[in-house]
Design goal:
The structure is a homodimer of 539-residue chains.
Chain A: H1 11-15, H2 32-35, H3 55-76, H4 89-94, H5 110-122, E1 132-133, H6 142-154, H7 165-181, E2 190-194, H8 197-212, H9 216-219, E3 227-232, H10 238-245, E4 253-256, H11 266-278, E5 282-289, H12 301-311, E6 314-318, E7 343-346, E8 359-363, H13 368-373, H14 407-440, E9 445-447, E10 458-462, H15 465-468, H16 474-494, E11 498-504, E12 507-513, H17 522-536
Parallel strand pairs in A: 1-11, 3-4, 3-5, 5-6, 6-7
Antiparallel strand pairs in A: 2-8, 7-8, 9-10, 10-12, 11-12
């Protein structure tokens, strides 16, 4: 098809669908396609591009889809819409009216495909809704979303510069920028974007293992002394998973005791290291956490760095959740000492609001990742290429193909600037302080920590009237333990908001509120408190 | 914002952009936004939703982006457009006119963001172009693309049913369907979608290791006998990476010799296993390949299954590339015996045309993955939830969060039916046979294998006139070795097509043609041959 030919389209179509149709809520109009002249009931996937003469139908179909997506985006930001429309697993398996998950032998019409798209969104969870607080990742950043759409449309893979020229260079630019934010010198920094923080943490252990015993790559773990890892007893479970995967064993991950605020006690760490040495083990690695998952605590990084230097351990900082605070001049002091780490996990898909997934492992030694992971497959990494093959970064990973997770982040950085991220993050922290100060003044809520939050985690119990006068006891704890799950079940059925809960140590089930959604305002914090009371006051 | 309020939009905007603008090629019109009344030069990310009154600007901006994407999609399928517009890494780093990858402190306007989106696509590689043959994954499936757009818009994570109710059930439905295709009984099958085939292969080794020595999870590899893995000498390098990561060591991966067609020689496999046993090692696992990366060879699965049964080894089939042939009644016999495997890697993102990424590991034992990988983090996997928590599948992975890779695949299956995938795959195989038979008749090309291709891989040398009369010799090989890289460099500079090359064993650099793009037709095969001659005849 020539450029000239591109205007040779059916003139009737040029009138439909009108742009205005994008503004109407169509979700409840089953047969709206009739109304605007587009009938997809007799059109099938095979009629779309690359089919001959498929262009017009393809564009019409994509317009319909786009309309569905725009409607969803509008509803996401609409506080009068539900966060979710809850249904049980067996209901989906059985099928709902007009929406069956069964996979057919014969194709279904595009009309049905559009219905399926609408229903998939309808029965999902609006993770960008201003009242979705269930996860550390929330929000629907419009620029990030555009980045994801474009990435999907480009549909390429990160293994070589050859097939992802722009994206591989963008990754390099982003990694350099992030290491500047970490205050690492650029000629000593390296890194890669991976499928989530657990994977980034795994790479940090892998790099530490290789750095100490390079022959572990060929000979395996069994040829070397027993290696021991240390992490906060409140650190993320991915360190355990990493040790399991890497053949080190979860028994060789030593949990280090925390103080009352959930931070590693440095003296305990050092004592554990000395004990492991005395047993003849090799203390290999410490995972310090900058922003624990539940409490949002920051481990004392400088103290830990001192200990790691003294005893020759690899210092990793899991800043998956806390890393975003580095973008804020006001809050970055909480991560002081991170510049001394050997590796850092930092997930822009958390408080920076980048769409899922976007996680980086940053390594404070150039070339280590490549040496650790490379296998040099000839069919991918030819040395006799046209261009500088040092940009073929695929051998830095333990994967082969790798999803493009950088473009959305790059585009957001362009659109917001460093200053935009800073504002966004400061706002989340302010909301956490606002919630904390409100709860502190109430008798029907009890905070897990009285002091001001360091991150946006605010942990608390709602105490229903039936328990307010009851003295502290095992019986009261047992009853309180059931309050959060019951409220959670009710809020999911109503779809009015979503917030997580869990027990931790001796603390029975409590709510963990987190702020990472730029759409959330103080009014939503007020709503949260009122709604928890409404849902739980009869318990 | 209320539903009523949704129609309260600026009436001027309803006229712009007109639907017809979606049909015009705007890439070369720098200031086209003036022409249709939308000016984004003074609008910034902060003005979009969730900003107050941000809805109208958000919708306008998204319309502009959508237009850019539609233009790109049209061009992707347009044979007169280039496959790529090649630039070197240093050019991107230095910046092109109007397109700099540098990340700013202050926000850039949405006008610039739109320019950046256009330029990112402009300088990328059109992996869906009918003449993009560089990778096992190619094509731009419109339904799959819609699936990815919707997935991005839903922006959720796979760890729990709670926040991905529809998607977790879709995963279950897809895995069951795939195991039916494998002819596994459903109550014995399990699996999960992962970030690519290398990761799926890693999980298979992980599961095999755990099945043999469950305590390896807690105690690590060092407490157990030396485990040995076997794979084809032409198998994928991810088995080596897996062994490295898992602490088994690459020395403990035994490459098994292949016959002249690139298939494992069963007798060699058995001899290697017996030898390892005699050395006191534990032969743990065999990786059989169904569709090798370069030659497209299928290992003899039934023979390998017999050996694995006899010697008690885990049988994995890496069908990342070949798995799609199971969808074809005509070609599935090539994978006979796969039903006896303990695990299978199958990448729908390859010949089935699902957008990147979509890879499944299927395990022939219910519950094994969960037991192997679970850590039971309380903050995610509460047992006191409202619903049947067996659908919280997040603990089956070694990740925490996991990208939603299932929706696009599910939607494609609905839209094409099993029969649609079958047709698509049969067509790719027919094209491979067409190319093979054409090359066989020519003197200026030489096939690596004379017999008919089993998969869509067709491996061959182009022999320029200067080498055609030269007798076989080291000197001729050395010259021939340089032909493919030189042609490849020229084709990239011209942007007319993309096809990969590599050496393998004693074979000097040869082209590996593969068909997985539904947009490719016989005319493109004819073009490929003519173009290689045109680019290489003076070498």
């Amino acid at each position: 098809m020539s450029r000239d030919g591109q205007n040779d389209v059916n003139p009737d179509f040029l009138k439909t669908p009108p742009a205005s149709s994008l503004w109407q809520d169509k979700d409840n109009q089953e047969s709206h396609t009739e109304q605007d002249g587009a009938d997809f009931s007799s059109i099938f996937a095979k009629d779309l591009l690359p089919a001959n003469n498929g262009e017009e139908q393809t564009m019409r179909f994509l317009m319909e889809v786009f309309e569905i997506l725009l409607n969803y985006i509008r509803k996401t930001f609409d506080r009068t819409s539900k966060v979710l429309d809850f249904h049980h697993p067996h209901q989906f398996l059985k099928g709902m009216e007009g929406f069956t998950l069964e996979l057919p032998d014969q194709p279904e019409s595009l009309e049905q495909i559009l219905v399926d798209c609408r229903d998939t969104l309808k029965y999902g969870v609006k993770t960008g809704h201003p009242r979705f607080f269930n996860q550390l990742s929330s929000g629907l950043d419009v620029i990030g979303l555009v980045g994801e759409w474009l990435t999907s449309t480009a549909n390429t893979n990160m293994f070589t510069f050859e097939i992802a020229p722009v994206f591989t260079i963008m990754e390099e630019v982003l990694l350099k920028k992030m290491s500047t934010v970490l205050r690492w010198s650029q000629d000593e920094s390296d890194g890669i974007f991976l499928a989530g923080g657990a994977m980034s943490n795994l790479y940090s252990i892998l790099a530490a293992r290789y750095k100490r015993f390079p022959e572990v790559k060929t000979q395996g773990v069994a040829s070397f002394p027993r290696m021991v890892l240390f992490t906060s007893e409140l650190g993320h479970y991915s360190i355990m998973k990493g040790a399991m995967v890497l053949g080190l064993g979860t028994d060789n991950v030593i949990p280090v005791k925390c103080n009352s605020r959930g931070k590693i006690i440095s003296a305990e760490l050092e004592a554990s290291i000395i004990e492991a040495k005395q047993k003849g083990f090799v203390p290999l690695y410490v995972n310090a956490t900058a922003g624990t998952t539940v409490y949002g605590a920051f481990d004392p990084l400088n103290d830990i760095a001192d200990i790691c230097e003294k005893h020759n351990l690899w210092m990793h900082v899991d800043a998956a959740w806390g890393g975003g605070l580095l973008m804020s001049q006001k809050h970055r002091y909480k991560l002081t000492g991170i510049e001394r780490a050997n590796s850092v996990t930092w997930n822009p898909h958390k408080i920076m609001g980048v769409p899922l997934q976007c996680s980086a492992i940053l390594i404070h030694e150039k070339g280590l990742l490549q040496n650790c992971n490379k296998m040099g497959a000839q069919y991918l990494f030819q040395k006799d290429k046209l261009y500088d093959v040092s940009y073929d970064t695929g051998d830095k990973t333990i994967l082969c193909g790798r999803h493009v997770d950088v473009f959305k982040f790059w585009l957001m950085w362009k659109a917001k600037g460093t200053s935009g991220f800073e504002k966004q993050i400061n706002k989340c922290l302010e909301l956490a302080e606002y919630l904390h100060s409100k709860l502190k003044r109430r008798n029907d809520f009890k905070l897990v920590f009285d002091d001001k939050p360091e991150h946006t985690n605010v942990c608390f119990w709602y105490i229903p009237p039936s328990l307010q006068e009851m003295p502290e006891s095992a019986e009261r704890d047992s009853q309180l333990h059931q309050v959060a799950p019951k409220i959670k079940a009710r809020m999911m059925e109503e779809g009015s908001l979503m917030v997580g809960y869990q027990p931790q140590g001796h603390n029975v089930n409590f709510f963990r509120m987190v702020f990472s959604n730029p759409a959330t305002n103080k009014s939503d914090v007020d709503f949260l408190i009122e709604e928890l009371v409404r849902l739980g006051k009869d318990l």
